[in-house]
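Hello forum,

I keep getting stuck at the same step: I have a sequence, I want structure tokens, and every attempt I make locally crashes halfway through. Rather than fight my setup again tonight, could one of you with a working pipeline run this one for me? It's a single chain of 141 residues.
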Amino acid sequence: MSLDGAVTTRRAAGAADDGREATGQPGERLPDQAAATRYEAHGAGVVVARGSYDMQTVAPLATALGAAAEEYRKVVLDVSGVTFADSAFLNLLILTHRTTDLRLVGPTPQVKRILEITGVDTVLTVRPTVEDAARQDACRT
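Reply #2:
Ran it on my machine without issues. Output:
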């Protein structure tokens, strides 16, 4: 597998959610840095998402998914490293699904919950591994 590229959000580790620098005080939560990498597996474009995705951090993932969708008929999104996802992330999944055969891999409990609550798990193909998702013909589960 060749690494096609990496995209990282402007949100630097250590920056507070309100734009202030983190002070390192006990109990202060540093935001999860969102990142996306792309590669190819079995003729499918694979995007690996890591970190927290909301309205402010979803753009680089959208760019990575858009580029993969332009290049491949089948796009696999590995969400096993997603620590937070909101409606912006969910909207991106639906929009990407409209343009390509999008498959999700390894959803975390938080991602699984948002998919189930909204019913998106009945629309998208969800598989346990990148191998399964990249090789298998389209079918919904």
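Confidence is low (pLDDT under 50) at residues 1-30. If your local run keeps crashing, start a new thread with the error log.
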